[in-house]
Specification:
5 copies of one chain form a homopentamer. In chain A, helix 9 runs parallel beside helix 11. Helix content of chain A is 42%, strand content 13%. Chain A has an 8-stranded parallel beta barrel, surrounded by 6 helices. By secondary structure, chain A is α/β, with parallel strands linked by helices. The longest helix of chain A is centred in the middle third of the chain and has 18 residues. Chains in contact: A-B, A-E, B-C, C-D, D-E. Chains A and B meet through helix 4 and helix 5 of A and helix 7, helix 8, helix 9 and helix 11 of B.
Chain lengths: 306, 306, 306, 306, 306
């Protein structure tokens, strides 16, 4: 028996119970680029980093900007915290699906012992007509005991309400720092598997950054692998198994990097991207321009049936 | 698309569910100066600082003083803790709206790891006929994990009971101290956004105090901005988006500073002020005098339709 | 408007809901010295200090001693923990009201971070026919976050069941030690206000001990006040507002000190005393003797209508 | 009024509600030596110390040994944890009463901050047909706050279900070590009172070991008392008031010590013994032999009517 | 009375309530090698160690590999976490029983204070049609207080739903390290007893590794015993009493070690094995080969009737 690549994974939708299937199908086929892809717009940077992320494009400080962008440019969904969901989503309900992010934190204190507690519930998501719930899991954090137990409650409620669960799978904390760091192939690979085993329907990953100097501190065999970025992300997508994978963007980079990453995640068997600053730190027309290119890249490189 | 200034924000009342709308409308239009303004009287200093705040005006030690002032001088609402609400508000029920403050603490221990736990519930507020609930959020505190999770419960109950939520958004803790301090434009701006994203209907902010020497420790671009007080508060009000903003007073200052701050918050698109010591540390007639001037300033500088 | 002295406070009973009013009235008028006074007998020293307090009068080791004393000498109420309430109170039910103390601790570990967790509930008090509930609040303790939140639950249950709440308001912990200590006028004054704002119907205070040497570490203006004992207790009683105040006794002192303290608290607008060791560390007839004198002093110095 | 010695205490059964009375009566009169005595067999050493305690008598490693001993030798009850209760008690149900011990811990980590969390509930005890519940309280431990609050839940459930509560009252932790140690008369006396005040129906105490060298660190007057073992246990039994007292055995000692201790606790007004290793570390016939002697000593020295 | 060896233990099934009996019987007799044996396949290494364990046999990274292996090679059950259970088990439901592992953690942070919090519930297991629940107990960890209390909840739910409880009994933490280490005969023996006393129906143990150098730090008499591996495991199986014991495998070893361990556990009165890496780190046919040999060894050495 051969290991099935991410591309050959059994259809996720076919194993999901009806509520999850109905909602997730909406994101994959009815909204956004469709064809089983996910193009997600995150707007949680205002709490994770503060308003400083809005300076490159002052218009982005008004949440209206991201909501209008998500609706008009045809996103699969917009992801945000409870405050935005309650005060800005009503005008766009039905026009673009909502992913309610249920935990979060500021970046003011150091993140050696990272834990992001919940500030909203799956029931809030149901009430607001959301089609999925987002949860940040700090894989490997010294406080993983609290994190995993908190996730239990969210996951159980997702099962109860038929709500798809998107896990922001972020390696973090002092233990990770000692073993290659949060972008090491080791850490991203582990995070992908953790998220899947903890019940994610969709896993959000950062692009791994192989770095021989740091990776030698990872456990074997990672300490000796010579993976490039594409190989590393492919392995991570495989580690996520039947869970769909979307690639995170991070701080703003060149257009060709954006599109290249989009291609790489799709070629690796991923299902799409969740780029925030790389999109909304641009002015309206520029944003539409890059969104068009991302969309084209996504639908042009579909390798997996969700 | 241009970023909408605080002044151009969509009406908050129009996006609120009926219970919140009915109650908040009472504060904005039926009581106090009206015209969509908020003139709030806080009397929680007895627990936050102890009775020492009452010495400048001994009459203020008797909570009757603040309740009578709030009712007779025509305040939008009085904000206090459960003990005062239960023992002094009954005589004024219907004469002035009540904001029940549901958490608080003494200032005896140091506040490096500030957290203010709840001592009352939203259900208490409902029972007592309050029109809003107040919550102190220590933005950026090392204990933000507990704070945000606790706020979740209060916010959910506010949603359940249709109770407006006023967040005292105070940057606090060792992390904030290292990045410019609790009155830095960076910290106040972050606090405004946090409160809005966590579900505040009204955000209470301190006036930022730009200080190039300290602000250089803030993250970019704040470290290099040359904002004056007015610009700093305008940005913070914008960061609060559709949430209304009221300005906090702090310790007693000169009359022209009081009125100047009132003008600045209104010009910035704020909705009013919540001055305590600057009002009730004065004798009765002096207090009425300054209240009259504040009221005039508020209604004379309305720039936003709530 | 003038500040109302404690003596001029509005009737507490008139603002209390019926359950609290009915029960508290029983203590103030139907049992004990009456005339709106409170003469309370505490027997929680067995857990707070251990049996060592019973050696001066071996008979006092048997809880029967205190129960019989409370019933036969005509106390307003006896205050004790759940074990005594369940095993000794039944014989005296109806003969003397019961205050069930719902938290407590031994004095074995140091009290730098004092917190007294609950070992009984308000529902226990209802079941046992108690007329009030007692709670020790360590004002200013580094663990005040837990204390205030725990008190919330007790206070809510008191509201639910119409049970009067007596708060043992004790300044305690390292922060208090640095600011003048637990008997400083500053600390006692703060404690009185805290208890009232947290929902106490009756506040139990220790007699402040002004000490210029230590008080200079208190925040201004306390650091410069030259209050004597009588002034200090008068201010503290005023800080408690509409909440009734009873004075705590502490370790055994001379008869004239006992009676002098009784006079001082009554003159200050307090409602009575809660002396334990000063009473039951005496043999039966001696105890009756001093109780008679206390009773006479109480009823002879009533200054406030509860 | 004279202090009542333990022997003169009012009947405990007469103040207990019917459920507790029915169950405790079974232990005191229907099973075991009867005549109001308690001969209890504890088998919780397997978790408190590990299997090492079973080596002196290998047969004792099989819990059948203790259960059969308890049933055939006529014990008042057997005390064990949930696992033994579920897997071994069924065969003996009705033949010997069960005391379900609801908390416990290994002795692997140090016990400076001792706390024994619950691993079973009072409801488990009801379901299994137990006649009492056992709880270990570490009197004076730095974690007493958690301990007392946890005990509250157990005690409340005991009250709800009419289940007698047996408290293993063990002084423990760094604070106790500094004040004479866990076997000092001070510590045992305090433990007895604590257990009674926290709601124990039966208190399990260790035999105090007066030691002038260590006792001088106890608070006065203990630091200066010259009690012998018999006086110390008599005072502790008195401190337990109406709660019944049983004496704990500890590690194996000579037969005459076993019997002498049995006599001392009965003469002091105690109700019996709970000897484990001193019994089941003996081979079957030896065990029956000493049990017979203990039984005779118990019934021959009854001084108190329970 | 002689101590009963593990082999002579009373039938476990006969003391179990019907739900547990029906489910456990399925594993022991209807699936797998039968004859009262347990051949379990664990696939929780992806979270306990990360994907690094899958490199020796890349096919094993796809959970399909283990599920298909378990079903086709005839396992008694497969043990995995919630994510795999929800996304991979549906295809095999009815073909191989499921043990839902309800807690787990990564190995990124150090394990001095090991605690594995729950990420799934017994109710999840019921919903998914599982036949048992798995729980990792870190025996002797400094956080045993939390561990034992958490286990209480799981055990109670198992009792409520008639779900067999399998305890992964792992000595762990700084206390264990100081007393001979996690594979010392002392530690394994203690762990076996703990698991049984805490309510395990099946106990999973590691093979003890006697080491005179380290064992001298164990408490007496372990410090002086000269047990070999077979004696050590036999004592541990006896300590588990009526609970069934399965032997854990650990990292991959030689075939003869695998089979020898299988023989030793069966000869000791154990009920089977739970080998993961030693099986699925082999290619398909190699895996089937060793599974066949394990199965033969198991059924050829049955010494105990479950």
């Amino acid at each position: 028996m051969e290991v099935k690549s991410a591309i050959e994974q059994k259809s996720l939708l076919s194993v999901l119970p009806p509520g999850k299937r109905a909602r997730l199908r909406r994101l994959l086929f009815e909204f956004g680029p469709g064809h089983g892809t996910l193009m997600l717009l995150p707007i949680d940077q205002g709490i994770e980093h503060g308003p400083r992320d809005f300076f490159p494009n002052p218009a982005s400080k008004d949440p209206e900007y991201q909501f209008r962008l998500a609706a008009e440019a045809g996103y699969s969904a917009i992801a945000c915290q409870i405050g935005l969901a309650e005060k800005y989503y009503p005008d766009y309900a039905g026009q673009v699906p909502l992913i309610l992010k249920v935990n979060g934190k500021t970046d003011v204190p150091p993140s050696d012992n990272a834990l992001s507690t919940t500030n909203a519930s799956v029931e809030d998501a149901v009430r607001l007509g959301a089609d999925a719930v987002g949860y940040t899991l700090y894989v490997g954090s010294p406080r993983q005991d609290e994190d995993l137990h908190q996730l239990k409650g969210v996951r159980e409620d997702c099962d109860r309400f038929g709500m798809p669960l998107v896990i922001w799978a972020y390696p973090r904390g002092s233990g990770i720092d000692k073993k290659g760091g949060q972008l090491s192939p080791y850490a991203i690979d582990y995070a992908a598997r953790m998220a899947m085993e903890m019940g994610a329907d969709v896993v959000k990953l950062n692009m791994p950054k192989p770095d021989p100097e740091k990776d030698k501190d990872s456990p074997a065999p990672y300490s000796e692998l010579q993976w490039d970025e594409a190989e590393a992300i492919r392995h991570a997508v495989e580690s996520a198994g039947r869970s769909l994978v979307v690639l995170s963007g991070g701080s703003r980079v060149d257009d060709d990097v954006v599109l290249n990453h989009t291609r790489e995640i799709m070629d690796a068997g991923g299902s799409g991207v969740i780029f925030g600053r790389n999109v909304w730190q641009r002015e309206w027309n520029d944003a539409l321009e890059i969104i068009g290119q991302i969309k084209e890249t996504l639908t042009g490189h579909v390798t997996r049936i969700p």
